[in-house]
Amino acid sequence: xxxxxxxxxxxxxxxxxxxxxxxxxxxxxxxxxxxxxxxxxxxxxxxxxxxxxxxxxxxxxxxxxxxxxxxxxxxxxxxxxxxxxxxxxxxxxxxxxxxxxxxxxxxxxxxxxxxxxxxxxxxxxxxxxxxxxxxxxxxxxxxxxxxxxxxxxxxxxxxxxxxxxxxxxxxxxxxxxxxxxxxxxxxxxxxxxxxxxxxxxxxxxxxxxxxxxxxxxxxxxxxxxxxxxxxxxxxxxxxxxxxxxxxxxxxxxxxxxxxxxxxxxxxxxxxxxxxxxxxxxxxxxxxxxxxxxxxxxxxxxxxxxxxxxxxxxxxxxxxxxxxxxxxxxx
Length: 330
Ligand code: NAD
Prior knowledge:
The protein is an alpha/beta fold. The protein is 34% helix and 15% strand. Helix 1 packs across helix 11 and helix 4 packs across helix 6. The chain is globular. The site of nicotinamide-adenine-dinucleotide has 30 residues, from helix 4 and helix 6.
């Protein structure tokens, strides 16, 4: 089986190549170009393409992949909001993903963002390096005995709930399918969670229903001085409304690993470029906003698991086995 691996970074290549010797029937061509309309034709002659969170897998790209003979789309990530599943179904191309490769990796990053945004450790580090030992601007709040609100208690949300409990927080949660495994969590309505939480962390997928769930109206229903963290998908938050809320002093701190507009930038060094949009820079101009570049997944354990499951997905397809990690349109 020949796989064209789009948007290769050195770490992707390292982790996949480490395992490839166990899959003698799979050959991978690693290329730097990302998957988009202009590059879909490169897949001619390949059985499968492998893509990540910032690839364009809209209907035109999928139709082009189909016309080039591609039979399988391997997403090396959990989320698949960037894939037009209906178009994939029409083209007869199964879409496989990597669910739950390391929920702790993302949850630990969510807490790291919450702590950094709260205690300003990113600024403290720079200040100390410059012999500025003053504490002005670094004041935070305790998490101990505060209330965490987890929106979406799947694999990552559950891991985050456990971390919050470890900090001595009360944990509220909102999910359309509450879990029986979290006996220390109190499931409440979204309204109650918004009104009572000191720390709100988003862990539900981006769907038509959840897009812009954090907007002017939901922000107004939050506690003043709330800390908001998003490691799920940028589209869960309506950025303009978030900016308005920050300007209104609604938030003590905001930590964002994902944001609208990110797909043009993430994983690229654009430090010498004049960026065509400025929403990210507007967010970063606020002293209480901390951002990272969609790196919640970025641990050795997660990359090992992503490579293994992606190769297992390819092998299962090749052998005509049940595709347990297939995502389908409704
Ligand atoms: P999961 O499928 O295990 O859990 C998602 C949970 O959200 C489920 O319990 C589901 O019932 C709930 N949910 C769905 N719609 C909802 C709604 N409208 N309101 C409330 N809850 C709702 O997924 P997961 O593995 O925990 O991942 C969660 C998300 O994290 C992914 O969809 C992905 O977008 C994101 N993610 C980010 C990174 C990163 O690097 N930052 C890495 C992996 C995943």
